Every structure is written in C-alpha cells, then in structure tokens.
Amino acid sequence: MTSVTSPLAGRAIGLAAVPDPVFSDAMVGPGTAIDPVREPSEAVSPIDGIVVSLHPHAFVVLDSEGHGVLTHLGIDTVQLNGTGFDLLVAKGDTVTRGQAVVRWNPADVEAAGKSPVCPVVALDASADALADVVLDGEVKAGDALFGWR
C-alpha cells in the first residue's frame, strides 16, 4: 500500500468541504483536502516519485507503482498566473516524500480572493482503493493522509 502524506500543515477537511464541485464531487479522484495555515510555507511531495505535471498552483507526483497524486494549491489559483508561487523543482525531477516542491503563502491567495484550500487527490483511483482517509483534524507536513491499495 502506498502511503500518501500531507504536503503542508493545516487542518484536514475532506474533499466534500472543497469549494469547487470538481474536487468536492471527487470528479478528479478520491482523497482529502487541507485548509492550510496562513503563513509562507513550502508544499512538499506527498510520495516518492517523479514530477509528471508541474504548475505554480498544482503538481502531480507519480510513484513507481503508477499511483499519481495531485496536490492543488488553492482553488481557482490558476487565475493568479503564477503570482506568489515559486517552483522549487522541475517537471521530470525525481522527488522524495517531504521534499519541497512549491513555495507559496496561503494568506496571499486568500487576500487575492481565492480559497487557499488544497485538495490532495489520488488520480485514476476509485474511492474503495483508499484506506484510512483523514477527513478532519490538524495535520503537519508529512503526516499520513491516506493509504492507496
């Protein structure tokens, strides 16, 4: 089972609480979401793998078993055109769990009128493929969010 850990510190709120139906209805895939602490921070890789997609507001890491995990930094943050996000790796890089991928400030995202809530999604997975999904409570970067069978 692949263990997926939190890419940042905050409060787990579950996908149903994400203010975007693409995530709240799990159209992208199952998982959970983090309401991040409102301070400058680094979003870290939730698994060991290869960065297969990288944008200022979102990244996907693919592990050796073919599991892709999407970390989306805020909702509608693509509209910020990269402002306030610093990429710390490149697409194609191999990363380890806990390695910094993007530097950002959730408070700036909120000040720009966007939700800083961060979905963490198991791509191309069914809901029953996940176990022990954390839907509430405080989490630190690196804490377990769910297992992927």
UniProtKB/TrEMBL annotation:
- Gene Ontology molecular function, alphabetical: kinase activity
The UniProt entry, under PROSITE patterns, shows:
PTS_EIIA_TYPE_1
| Database matches in Pfam families | PTS_EIIA_1 (PF00358)
InterPro entries according to UniProt: Dup_hybrid_motif, PTS_EIIA_1_perm, PTS_EIIA_component
A GO BP term here is: phosphoenolpyruvate-dependent sugar phosphotransferase system
Tell me the compartments it is located in: Cytoplasm
Q: Which SUPFAM superfamilies match?
A: Duplicated hybrid motif
The record's keywords, sorted A to Z, are: Kinase, Phosphotransferase system, Pyruvate, Sugar transport, Transferase, Transport
Sections of the chain in a coiled coil: none
Gene3D superfamilies the record matches = Glucose Permease (Domain IIA)
Give the CC-aspect GO terms.
Answer: cytoplasm
Q: Where is the PTS EIIA type-1 domain?
A: 20-124
Name of the protein described by the UniProt record = Phosphoenolpyruvate--carbohydrate phosphotransferase
